[in-house]
Every structure is written in structure tokens, then in C-alpha cells.
Structure prediction request, 356 residues.
Amino acid sequence: MLRPRNHTPFKKPLKELTEADLDRELNRQSAHLDLALEAKEAASEVQGRVDELPGVHTEILEEQGIKITRIEVQNEEGARLIGKVPGHYITLEVPGLRHKDSKLQDRVATKFAQEFERFLKHLNISPDAKVLLIGLGNWNVTPDALGPLVVENIMVTRHYFELMPDQVHPGYRQVSALAPGVLGTTGIETSDIVYALVEKVQPDLVIAIDSLASKALERVNTTIQIANTGIHPGSGIGNKRKGLTKQELGVDVIAIGVPTVVYASTIVTNTMEMLIRHFKKRTNHTQQIFGLMDQLSETERLELIKEVLNPIGHDLLVTPKEIDEFIEDIANIIASGLNAALHEAVDTSNVAAYTH
Prediction:
């Protein structure tokens, strides 16, 4: 059923919806949404709200081309509404990263380090806490190689503490790192590998880095998310398996993710939205040009396009052609930021010196 723009995606008024109706729609909207920011936006659209959702607190800051959104899912009601477990989520959006501006990359690395350091303090992670970094993903597939590339650039120190502790200068902590590969190449669930490693290494904190999927084309290759709720490898492409969470591993888990892929249905939807906006600047007869598609909301267009593409297997996962250069740059930004945030001896106010 095609519905006019600005209507809710329900056949009856929002105030008449049962909790079951709302839950079904919220679950549908939050499917495949790795970014908490996008899950909140989808939930707000479902509920027709522009203010805060119950149980969800949002804080937005903008500084020199970097937009920071801090979302706290405070309780089970908030978790139900946006489909994300209670916890803290920080999103850095930097559209300028597409232009390979080295000075902007330095600022992003510095801001990421400061936000991550703030995150550690909020979770009461002590300066001497032992850290294990896990680089999730497949190093043979460029859009999925973020985790392994970050691990390559991490300042690992655990072996120094083990072999020559008297030679370690103050201001450094024990950091170890591993890229465990993917199930298809190892035959072992990633969570099983990490669980065994945690049992042996006994870290106080696990940091998992992974590539994500986005529903917004403009967020691909421009966004970094930090969350203290763990991660489910493969969830962004609909392949959810056993997660890396505090409940599973017994230690705090911080997830860092960057959307590097987008669904074909999202590209079609975004392109159609841009076309409609383009024509509206030039004519008042867009309805004659686009028909009923002009009356649908963006979410309704997306659902309609998915209905067309999914049965024939054409809702592909797509990555921009610049992914080879971008993945190296963003991995360097994250690794540099982590090195500064994890070691007090590295100045988080100026990460540029450690970025190149």
C-alpha cells in the first residue's frame, strides 16, 4: 500500500498502535543497522518524534568539520525502541574524510583519541589496565580489512612487560593484539578464538575493531562508532553469530566500527531522494514526474525497493571505488588514536606526530 509522505508507516494512527505493532515495526527498522545513530533515527521516524525517545539520551557536538553524537541507551525501554542494548555509543561523522585532507585526518585522529580516552574514564578503566585488541575481518577483502590493518599499526607492549619489565618507561600499559581471521578461512568461530585468548592472556579490557554496514550512503567511509556493548561479527551483512561481549568474555568490551559497505537498495533510495530534491528546485510538478514515489517517505521507498531486489538476489553489498586508499587512511587514524588514548606517554592533544 502506497502512503503519502509524512504519514506513519502504519495503517492506523500512532496513538492506536499496540505495543506488539510498535515492536514489530521497530524490529523491522533496526534490522542490519550497525550504527546506533541510524537505529535511533529509524526509531524516531517510526514513532513520528523529533524530541528525545524515552530511555535514550543524545548529545551532539560539532567542531571543525567533525560531528560527534553521544547516545546513551539508559534502560530496557530505550533498548526496545532503537534495537540496541543499554550502553554508551559515540559516533564521529566526518564528511571531509572523502577528500584525503591530511590535516583533517590529523584532527580526526586527535579527536578520536580524546573521545576514546574520555570513554575509558567513563568506564573506570584504569591507566594500568591490560588491553587486548582484536582486529575482526578478512584481510583478503579490502572493505573487511579494517580490523587487521589497525592491528598492524598498534603499539603492542605486552612482550616488553613479560620479558624486560624494568626497561619499560612509565606511561605505557600492557597492550596485545591479534587479527584472528574469519570463520571461512580458519574453520573456527572468531568468538571461540577470542574466548580462548582471553582465558590465557587475562586482559582487563578487550577492544574489537570491525567493518560495518550503513544505511546512509554519506556515512560510508566517513564515520567511526565507539560502543561499550561489544560486537557480533558479521551482523552488518545479516550474518549474526556469537558475540564478543562482556557477558561472553567476562571482561569489558569496547567495539570500534567504521561503515565501509552499503546495500544496493540504499544506494537506489538515496539516489531517488537526491533526484527528487534536484527536481524540486526546478519545478513544482515533481509528482507528475515521479508519481506515487514522490509521496512516500524515504523509509517506505527503501522497503519497496528491497521488495523488488531481494527476491532476485540483487540487493548487493557495495563499497566505493576509493576503498583501497580509504581503508589504509582510516585504519591509520584509528590506530594512532588508540595508541595515544591507551598510553599516557603519548600526547592525546596532538596525535599528528604519531599519525604519519
